[in-house]
Each structure stands twice: as C-alpha cells, then as structure tokens.
C-alpha cells in the first residue's frame, strides 16, 4: 500500500490542502464479468463457475477470518495463521500437481481461487500473494517483515514490481465451491525446479476490502497435474478510454495555457460513479496519462499532488467526453466513455508561492 493524498477545498479559491489516506498503488479490478488484469507478469481473470468435486479440483489451502485473513498451505502442524486445520483443505502441493497452461505462446502455472462474502458487502481484496518452492512439504514459519517462509525467498511476489491489489466481487459467482478467479503465474518463475518440488502459496485478503463471511480457498485443476487447456479467454475489452495531460504552471498565472509544461510522474486516479477508486496510473515524462479498456459509463479522473511541495490546483480543461470540474478542481467528473476514447483532458498544478 502507498500513501496518497485526497484534497479538500480551502477558503482560497482553487487551493487545496492534503488529507492522508491509504489506497493500493495498483489495482487489478475483477469486479465485472470476464474482467482480467496483470501484475508482476501474472494474469488474473474473473471466471464463470467451474466444475468442482473429487478428481476435478484439488484444494490445498483454505483461509477464514473476519476483516483481514492470511495463510499458506503446508503439512506442518500446528498451523501458523488463519488456515483451516483439516488436512483435506490445507496440505502440501507439488509442482507436478500444478497445471501448465499456454497463453499466446507463454507457459503459466494455473491456480484457482474461490471467495465467499456477504451479498450485502460483496467486495474482497487480495492484497498479498507470494509463492515459494521448497524440498519438503512441511515447511512453516512465515515472516511477514522479511516476506520469507522458513527463510526462503518467494519465486513470485504480487508486489514484486510495486504494491498491487486484486479487487473481486462475490456476487458474480455466489455460493462456495464454484470458483471466482484464475491466477496464472509465469512458469519461468519455477525454472529448474523438479516436479517433485513443493509449492507454497501465501495469500492475504481483506486489507483493502475486508473479509466478512465464509472462507477463501485455493485449488488446482486435475489431481495429479495436467497440461490443461487454459480457461476461456474473457470477452475483448471495450474500446473506450480516457486520456489527457497533467501540467505544471510555467507562466505564473495559475491558469492552464499552452505555455505550461507536462508534469511527469504524477499520480492520476480513475473513479467510478460510486466514488470508488478503480484505477491508478502515473503520468509519462511529458505529463500524459491514459486509462484504457473501460466499460461504457461515466467516470472521474483526479490528480493526486506530490508531497515534495505544497501545490495549488488550476481550473481543469475538459475533453471530448464532456464532464465538469470537481468542487476542489483536482479532477473532472462526469466523463462519458463509449466505444471510443475520450481525450483532451488537462489537469493543472502550481507550486504555492510561485
């Protein structure tokens, strides 16, 4: 997780102060049917309910707790965290049992995830995911600070290239056992490891969207392993998107104009109609940003000012998808996204006192 700063208006027109909040730096949003995304080379897909039962799937770790829950698979007892004690649900797993699937010429290892939440509060976040490989099936001792298991470093870490969170919606596949997501981890992470090696999957849920009902369970298809056909690809993403630029005042007039330079490395959030942040990006060196593959809807884009200076905001410029400045001027709301891109949005900052 990273610290971002939400703005609130001050008594001076166009100026905002910074309020601290904690949000994921990168969000993989699986809350629409067929959604997919990636983080650190892994692919995450929302999936329709899958066949279950003995011989079809092989459960290897089940977690359950309110709020935040975490744990890993092992044959070791006693268990360390929020794992189910039964060896039916929490057990060792060999690499040979993890199916290999091929996606556009790249091999991945496939893991299945089933979640359970209240229908009235269906969102759940996967905030940490690390995979380890060992020579025995009874390793124990996860160190949250070092991010190691029995002293081993992970061969895959969801946060390996920056903090990431996966957001899921239980309502898409209600009920337990049907499966909600497929996680594909590059097979290259396991290069040189024999099939008899033991795979340990550590996961943590609920730091962003809390766990509130039932269990979360990881499984693999086909007891004994297989070279499987990958799950059906999700529908093609819609062609809609939003693009624009963040500029820094270069003329001292605190008004966006052609003389202002692009402001690189600045965070821009994408917000849905409910007020939830569903995407985040950083501007390129020339200040440009974009959000692509958006479903038709109305969105808000808002700039998150860096903390190295005290920044004021300039009145933003709308683009081809319409919209209007937010009360704080830090964003543009009501941007309509259809089948084509909405472009030309400009958000502006200036250093206070300059």
Please name the defining characteristics of this protein:
single chain, 354 residues, mainly beta, seven-stranded antiparallel sheet, six-stranded mixed sheet, 27 strands, 0% helix, 45% strand, disordered N terminus
Q: Nutshell version of this structure?
A:
With 354 residues, this protein is an all-beta fold. It has strands at residues 2-9, 16-23, 27-30, 36-39, 42-46, 57-63, 69-72, 100-103, 106-114, 123-134, 142-143, 148-149, 156-157, 165-169, 181-186, 198-205, 216-221, 240-248, 261-262, 267-271, 277-282, 288-294, 297-304, 311-317, 324-325, 331-337, 341-351.
SSE inventory with pairings:
Blueprint: E1 2-9, E2 16-23, E3 27-30, E4 36-39, E5 42-46, E6 57-63, E7 69-72, E8 100-103, E9 106-114, E10 123-134, E11 142-143, E12 148-149, E13 156-157, E14 165-169, E15 181-186, E16 198-205, E17 216-221, E18 240-248, E19 261-262, E20 267-271, E21 277-282, E22 288-294, E23 297-304, E24 311-317, E25 324-325, E26 331-337, E27 341-351
Parallel strand pairs: 3-14, 18-27
Antiparallel strand pairs: 1-2, 4-5, 5-15, 6-17, 7-16, 8-9, 9-15, 9-17, 10-13, 10-14, 10-16, 11-12, 18-19, 18-22, 20-21, 20-23, 23-26, 24-27, 25-26
Strand content: over 45%
By secondary-structure content and strand pairing, the structural class works out as: mainly beta
Mean pLDDT: 84
Output the number of helix runs.
0
- Share of helix, binned: under 10%
Radius of gyration: 22 Å
What is the H/E string? EEEEEEEEEEEEEEEEEEEEEEEEEEE
Overall form: elongated
Q: In this structure, how is the largest beta sheet organized?
A: 7 strands, antiparallel
Distance between the termini: 32 Å
Query: Any low-confidence stretches, pLDDT <50, length ≥5?
Result: 1-23, 231-238
How many β-strand stretches?
Answer: 27
């Amino acid at each position: 997780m990273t610290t971002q700063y939400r703005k609130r208006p001050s008594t001076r027109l166009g100026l905002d102060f910074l309020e601290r909040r904690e949000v994921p730096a990168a969000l993989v949003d699986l809350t629409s049917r067929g959604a997919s995304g990636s983080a650190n080379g892994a692919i995450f897909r929302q999936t329709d309910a899958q066949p279950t039962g003995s011989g079809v799937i092989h459960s290897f770790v089940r977690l359950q707790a309110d709020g935040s829950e975490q744990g890993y698979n092992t044959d070791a007892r006693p268990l360390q965290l929020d794992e189910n004690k039964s060896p039916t649900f929490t057990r060792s797993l060999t690499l040979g049992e993890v199916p290999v699937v091929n996606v556009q010429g790249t091999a991945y290892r496939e893991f299945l995830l089933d979640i359970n939440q209240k229908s009235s509060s269906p969102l759940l976040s996967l905030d940490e995911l690390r995979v380890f490989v060992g020579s025995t099936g009874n390793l124990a001792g996860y160190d949250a600070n070092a991010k190691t298991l029995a002293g081993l470093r992970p061969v895959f870490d969801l946060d390996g290239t920056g903090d990431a969170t996966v957001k899921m919606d239980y309502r898409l596949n209600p009920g337990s056992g049907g499966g909600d997501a497929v996680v594909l981890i590059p097979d290259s992470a396991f290069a040189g490891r024999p099939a008899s090696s033991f795979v340990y999957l550590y996961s943590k849920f609920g730091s962003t969207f809390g766990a509130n009902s039932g269990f979360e369970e990881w499984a693999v298809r086909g007891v004994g392993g297989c070279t499987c056909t990958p799950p059906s690809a999700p529908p093609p993403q819609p062609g809609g998107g939003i693009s624009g630029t963040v500029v820094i005042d270069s003329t001292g007039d605190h008004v966006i104009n052609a003389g202002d330079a692009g402001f690189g490395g600045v965070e821009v959030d994408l917000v849905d109609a409910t007020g939830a942040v569903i995407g985040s990006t950083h501007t390129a060196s020339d200040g440009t940003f974009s959000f692509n593959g958006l479903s038709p809807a109305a969105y808000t884009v808002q700039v998150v000012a860096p903390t190295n200076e005290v920044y004021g905001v300039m009145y933003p410029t709308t683009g081809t998808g319409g919209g209007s400045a937010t009360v704080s001027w830090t964003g543009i709301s009501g941007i309509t996204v259809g089948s084509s891109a909405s472009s030309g949005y400009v958000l502006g900052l200036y250093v206070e006192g300059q």
